Amino acid sequence: MEEWNLSIDQIHVIVRDNAANMICGIDLTVAESVGCFIHSLQLVIHDAIFVQRKIVDIIAKCRKIVSHFSHSSQACTKLKIIQEKLKLPTHKLIQDVVTRWNSTYYMLSRLYEQKQAVTAYATEHDIPTLDAQQWHLIGNVIIVLKPIEEITKIASADDESIGYVIPSIATLQSYLSKRTQSQEKDIMILKEDLKKSIEKRFLNFSGKNIQESSCFTHATFLDPRFKTRFLKDEVKVKKLILDELLAINRNRSNDEQNIFNSKDKTTDNDNAPSFSEILHDAAHESIWQCFDEIANGSKSDVDSVDTSTEEEKNFNRQPSDRTKKKTIVFTAEIDKYLAMPLITRKEDPVVWWKTHASELPNLKILFLKYCSAPPSSVNSERLFSAAAAVYTEDRNRLLPDNAEMLIFLMKNMK
Fold first, then answer.
1. pTM given for the model
2. Is residue 271 scored above 50 in pLDDT?
3. Total number of domains in the chain
4. In this structure, is residue 17 part of a structural domain?
5. d(Cα 183, Cα 179) in Å, to the nearest integer?
6. Which residues contact 158 (CB under 8 A, 6 or more apart)?
7. Positions of the region Disordered (predicted)?
8. Could you list the residue range(s) of the whole structural domain that residue 389 is in?
């Protein structure tokens, strides 16, 4: 922080992983911090699914099967011949990485896709085999994990914000609560275990609840895709937003107006992938049907918003005479924003705010503050991967300062 001339006052929130040493280290800085959404999902899945003995044994066996083909080109060739005979996609099997749950999901999905080919190969070669019940369980695990994989993929996007977390958790809770006649007992048990793990990690973890953290609630409120539809207590959040607008008004500086202009420049890059393009391949009817039900006003699967008369009175109560006019202005702006229709989940909220900045000049300042934080630390981890691509054996005399500039250009020039 000292090297980059950053003070605590300039930092809105730090996104970190959930390691105890990282939590303690950031706590020493007195800065606000939140856990990486994707890492938390990893823990949810580990707690609910990857600790079950039957599933652990199946995954271990799948790793041995994939490893057999990874270490033998002849085995891969024979598998390809079988795939062609059975008219299956000639895809290679995928080896998972223990620390990334979605890689295990991809491994299981690919094996399930190539079930016939792998089974046929096993009849003539000495490799671990899966019985019908184990294949069936793999299929059930894939069904349950598919929506979480899609949410993980979206949260990993470069331009997603922390406002995506609460809607994702609410949508997952709704999806996991769905009961259909065709679903088997194993699937319902897996779903129930996931629900409990989500509540533990996101709604009651060390006394913390994302529905009570301003970092999450304010970002969701200020995202035109979500607004108050996914919030448990919209009246409270509206009151906190109003209070912060009044506080900013008391301490407003002249250069706040320049923040959004610099943000506009980054959104005019024609070569950058659009928000819609990133989401296009992530459509999944069941999970997104749950999202649309909540976004369109159906809250049967999540906690309803508490809008008691007393709270409404507290929100609408006039403050002191000194700030009476500003309170009226800010309240009108909040009401105007909430009266505007939601945009679809595939649209870019930054583009929306660029269009409506002149209509909502005060709220756009809060949008830039709260929605600037990403939902995960994936991007910072990608930076280390970029460094590995710059530091190669052929460039072992590259000076650190030059390497740093090359990495900066690699990540910022599109």
1. 0.78
2. no
3. 3
4. yes
5. 7
6. 273, 379
7. 301-320
8. 378-413
